[in-house]
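ingest -> fold -> write
write: protein_1
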Amino acid sequence: MKKKKTVLIKPVLCVLCIGVCTLLLWRFGSQAPEVFASVAVKSAQLYLPNAAVNLKSESEKTDKAQATEKAVAKVEKAEKEKTDGAANTSSLSDTPEDIAALMKEAKQQSKNDKKDGSISEWQYTDEGVTDKFGAVKVKNVNKTGINIEKLLEQKADLSVSGDKPSVLIFHTHTTETYQLVDRDFYPTNNVTRSEDEGRNMVRIGKAVCEQLEKAGIGYIHDTKIHDKRYTGAYDNSRETAVEYLKKYPSIQVVLDVHRDAIERTDGTKIRPVAEINGKKAAQIMIISGCQEEGNGLTDFPDWKQNLVFALQLQKIAEESFEGLMRPLYFCPRMYNMNLTHCSLLLEIGSDSNTLEQAEYSGQCIGNALAKLLKNYTEE
């Protein structure tokens, strides 16, 4: 009796299945595959709950594994970038052969130098700072107040193209130079200016450009002497910069690279230094100007654009090379900074720093500038 019942069940089930399929095809038409799939899944969950749970569990495991792999890959990429960055920045401290040769020769020739005054090393930190946010410090001598945090949230008016020059570097005071011997005094025959490109500001500009070139950023480095006569040097350098801007409209970043001269009332010269990766570097001061009522400037309405760029460079340079930057000097001056929306003046060290220290700092600020410009590079 049981055998007959079993035999009858199979054809009945077949008839029922055919009927159901026919009904589904008539009712749902093109949606039938989705309906069949839904029925199959629900049946599996109803009659094979353990199998359904296992399928779901395996799916979750796969998703978790993929998420874990992505997270690990992300961490590994970040670590690699960090390691590569550390390797790149630590290699900057190698003294170039030309500078090492100059300093060796100068050391031999300076054995009989007589002292004219003292040199005192100093690392600038919070001197004169009026505004501070994170690693960024500003000495504001304007009436206009600033909010560093809000300004850093803004985008600089900048878009860098890899195949065209985006940066112009020139030197208003091209002949400014540095010490060739690291000592605590300056001699009576102290040289503070030279037309030799191997030891004046051109050599420091070259260091900056080397980092831009490594990063694949197009640049122009002008080596013309603008200060054969000190008076009128800024007019001369402006003419040069305007010519380049006409010839290369892609230039948006314009940097006038100088060095400072810091002296106390007793004649002691100050050498601003910071130790970075075990080597002395000349501290750098960024100058950014401001037009405001009563300060006499009338052709600098977009000064805030320059300040945004200046703060971003200050931030990335100080975070990359802690101690490198003196407080950013925000002042009522223009210094040809109205040429573009990303025009700045850089003071790399002083006349009491050594050429080696200044060149090292040129490499560092060039590295930081390249990192910043990469954020604005067109894909």
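write: protein_2
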Amino acid sequence: MLEKNNTMALEITNMVNETKNKLAKEINKSITYVYWNIGRIIVKHENEDNNRLEYGKEVLKGLSKELTKLLGKGYSYTNLTYMRWFYNTYPDYNKISESLSWSHYIELITIKDDDKRNFYEKECINSNWSVRELQRQLDTSLFERLLLSDGKANKEKVLELSKQGQVLNKPSDIVKQPYVFEFLGLKEPKPILEKDLEYKLIRHIEDFLLELGKGFMFVGSQQRITLNNTDYYVDMVFYNKFLKSYVLIDLKMNKLKAENVGQMNLYLNYYENVVNSEEDGKPIGIILCAEKDKVALEYALGGLSNNIFASTYTYYIPNKEQLINEVEKVLKNSD
């Protein structure tokens, strides 16, 4: 009897949740449709009045008071401004995604650059980001970091990102520069041990997975490798479902050393020969360090066939203006 009740309860729960999801999508679709149309009506009347800005502000304030009397909350001057902005940013209603909520669009319409906005919009849809996740990726300048990660940002890559979002075709596509661990709440100058950083990242695993990017699944920490009666431990192991590869992460609190690369090479050879199944691609190694010397790294990686990458990390959100300026500088030079 208990087993039968459990089966029925599961069936009913699935049905109710499915119905709730459908209702939520319908409600979201209706809200964006209404707000888009309110924006359209406002812009239409603005155009008829020759776009007199100051006059338009007074009209919106008066309209807000009138709508609040007639319809209740939700029609403040600020919200009406967002609706107007929404329509101006997306004049074609067919380009609005049913997957995204009004709250998503409030964040997106604040992005002036079309390519940048398109990228975040695609990532929201492809990666199913919540509004909180979108806000974090905006705050940590994900778009600029991805453009600069391979050291050769260019207009073709900007166009690709804006059309498709982040595409993972090769191991280097998963690497960012730098990684941002602001969710740990650490003060940058304060020294911390590698094991403590690892512990904190595991405690904040959801945030860490979001920072790593698409398709990452956590396998475990301190994964043991035994060779000739000697034990080695990989700090953190993930699996990327898009690349179908294990991703091994080694944490270093100081500057990258050549022996760190050799150690990672050992780990990758072991995973390829012992852990990998036939369906798995070559494993990928990422050494996260406080600093890296590009010249030394070139020599350390020279001649290695494994996928080893080094990147830095920071406990602070990057300087947005600096990142944006770097991107603009590279794009300008690529003309």
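write: annotation protein_2
The chain has a mean pLDDT of 82.
The chain is about 55% helix and 15% strand.
pipeline exit 0
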